[in-house]
Amino acid sequence: MTGTWQLVRLALRRDRILLPVWVLFLAGVTYSTTTALEELYNTQQSRDLLGATANANSAFLAMLGPLHDWSSLGGLVVWRWGVFSGLFIAIMAMLVVTRHTRAEEEAGRTELVAATVVGRHAPLAAAVIVAGGTSLLIGLLQALALTGKGLAPAGAFAFGLSTASVGLVFTGVSALTAQLSENSRVSNAIAGGFLGVTYLLRAAGDAAGESGPQWLTWFSPIGWTEHVRSFADNRFWVLLLPLAAFVLLVGVSSYIVTRRDVGLGLLPARLGPPHSTISTPFGLAWRLQKGSLIGWSIALFAVGVIYGSVAQAVGQMVQDNPTLGQIVSKIGGADAMVDAFFATVTQLIGLIASIYLVQAILRLRSEETSFRAEPILATPVSRWSWVASHVVFALVGGAVVLAASGLGLGLVYGLQIDDLGTVVPQMLGAALAQLPAAWVIAGVALVLFGLFPQLTGVSWAVVSASLVITLLGPALQLDQWVIDVSPFTHVPKYPDITFGPLAWLTVVAVVLLAAGFAGFRRRDLTT
Amino acid sequence: MTSAISVSGLVKTFGSTRALDDLNLDVQTGEVHGFLGPNGAGKSTTIRVLLGLLRADSGTARLLGGDPWKDTAALHRRLAYVPGDVNLWPNLTGGEVIDLLGRLRGGLNKQRREELLERFELDPRKKGRTYSKGNRQKVALVAALSSDVELLILDEPTSGLDPLMESVFQACINDERERGRTVLLSSHILAEAEALCDRVSIIRNGHIVETGTLADMRHLTRTSISAELAGPPNGLTSMAGVHDLVAEGNRVRFEVDSDKLDLVLKQLVSTGVRTLTSQPPTLEELFLRHYEDVK
């Protein structure tokens, strides 16, 4: 453990902008969500109505989880923001841990450090301290933000600690995945896949309702935060589960550290073919991007299957519940409810898919900064075709992952209502309608790459902004012009899909992509 | 002789740093041209401009009769490049990278590929992430040397190779010379340049300070002489062209400008010479002189 504190300081120095942004973002959204919900639901009557609909609506249940306590403002905040807060802090912990462990090792910098007076466990310990400490700080500030709004301290701290607990669990998960593979991309992919499963397990459990497999939520670190029931029951003891998971995961990881060589993973590296048949830049891009494309397609197909299986329950619930039926009939009946569910779900899927598109575009930048673009561009391959070879994965690959989710939705729902022929094309259409908006996001990423290569990372801020604006914009009562900034705002809602907005979104995307191409053809290669 | 590379008045700035400052470089077709200078002198920047990876601020650069920025793809068909920092794709094997780069360049000579793999003792089945720096360089070298191209641009290609592999590399470059290819070899290993290069250019702070054959350069510089004479070394001190004279009794050590060598030797012979050793200036001395003079 010698040298851990020096490494902690090094990590804090390197992340001196990144970490404060995460902390302020997660604490700030907690505060603004509270303010917004306070204004939105300022009467007991409005809260009761929300309570009745939120827990009866499978779409809400799957996306946000159950609303345990609608009598207090705190309960509303937990319901509206708790799951997302957990998701965001998990991503933070994952990126921070991998960045300071496996990515460092892969780059050969750990070797440089390991040769100095630094203990074998120090790099992992430092990463765990930084990610875990940041998680706790975020939790503390969230609790302070809530008490600052005059909410009950016990509930506020239950909520803050719940968020922090997800950060701790994913600190542990990434500590472990960093040991498995020699490749930081793979480490992040495994941890990210686990996060997806975590979210989906609780989505399925929550949406299933009393009769279904509700116990699934007990297998999800995000589900645990729901079981804390902040502001309703404040069951602090549930937090022992994430704490135990954190200790166990970090313990196993540090055991593996003592058993393996620096630079190597637990999954063995194998010999490969001595010859290759790749002969075009696209062939190379396919080789580099196919794993991610296949993984995302499977993941989004699974998302489609899960939401598709919930859809019928949405309609069912309305028929079972006469009171709810009355409310719903005003807005168009059970069918309208199911349609609204699919509208929400496809929008969510579009947002998730835009992460894939940006990741596919950013591959260009990582190839450039790691000096791997240089030997390719020193062959007769033109800059245009090199960029195009990766951009294809964003444009066409984006269509593939969206179609996969649409297929998942359509197949499962179609089988349930016994009408595959109608439902599958409908769902494919609804999912693919998100594509132009996702292309716009990809276009922004390519513009950054082509014109401002040093700022390519800002693409993630663009993705996050679209996520926050689209998912939380109405709840945060953002001004309409802010909401209009997200391209997903302009995608026509299922089932009223019109081509006008899709056409102009496509035009915007084409203009952005063209600007990105032109910019890259004129600029220097930089690192 | 025609020029394979001809650069004049090249300027490239990065922010406030002037990486290339009025750089002139001429590489003749068919020669092995050494491009010498310490780290940060501008070698890689020059090469990147020649490859169309960077755009020059001003000046002209001609490569194989074309413009490196505009005719990029056509020119790259006729050259192969080994970068200074070879980074491979972690999940592609060395063999796959060799084939890929060769194919993108328009084909590679399979027989030579196998020959080179054997000479460099490289296992093409290993994944990119498991190669050491030297082995990554070998991958890039095999890819470049097994392509049928007119011009090889090598940026410090041997910085990670061991002495055995260094000599394999030198043999390979001599083969390339015999095949009539042009080689631009950037290096800071002077022994390598001395062994391989027909002509060298020395770069300092983005400017070429010296260019020519090694013989030419030696002509402009000093030879070190140490001798034991039959009598006291009278008259040497006052002779033009003699520097750093150290005399101990009848023993002398000094350096002499190459164009005064004849006169000085006559003076020594007139005194009577018992033993004599004369050393031509090494490239290293040439190099150090250029760098120290200006300090």
Written description of the protein model:
The complex is a heterodimer of chains A (527) and B (295). Chain A has 527 residues and is mainly alpha-helical. Chain A has a domain at 1-267. Chain A has helices at 4-14, 18-40, 44-54, 58-64, 73-100, 102-106, 109-114, 122-148, 153-180, 184-208, 221-227, 240-259, 281-320, 322-330, 333-369, 373-377, 383-417, 420-432, 435-451, 458-476, 480-485, 499-522. In chain A, helix 5 runs antiparallel to helix 8 (122-148). Chain A is globular, with a radius of gyration of 24 Å. The two termini of chain A are 34 Å apart. In chain A, 51% of the residues are buried. With 295 residues, chain B is α/β, with parallel strands linked by helices. Chain B has two domains: 3-212, P-loop containing nucleotide triphosphate hydrolases (Rossmann fold), CATH 3.40.50.300; 220-293, Alpha-Beta Plaits (2-Layer Sandwich). Chain B is 33% helix and 31% strand. Chain B has a six-stranded mixed sheet with strand order 5-6-7-3-8-9, with helices on both faces. Chain B has a four-stranded antiparallel sheet with strand order 11-12-10-13, with helices on one face. Chain B has a three-stranded antiparallel sheet with strand order 2-1-4, covered by helices on one side. The longest helix of chain B has 16 residues, at 163-178. The interface between A and B is large, with 37 and 42 residues.
Structural class of chain B: alpha/beta
- Secondary-structure element sequence of chain B? EEEHEHEHHHEHEHEEHEEEHEH
Count of discrete domains of chain B: 2
pLDDT average of chain A, as an integer?
Answer: 88
Q: Helicity range of the residues of chain B?
A: 25-40%
What's the CATH H-level superfamily name of the largest domain in chain B?
A: P-loop containing nucleotide triphosphate hydrolases
Q: Based on CA inertia axes, which overall geometry of chain B fits?
A: elongated
- Can you count the beta strands of chain B? 13
Biggest beta-sheet profile of chain B: 6 strands, mixed
| Oligomer description | heterodimer
Rg over C-alpha atoms of chain B, rounded to the nearest angstrom: 23 Å
3D shape of chain A: globular
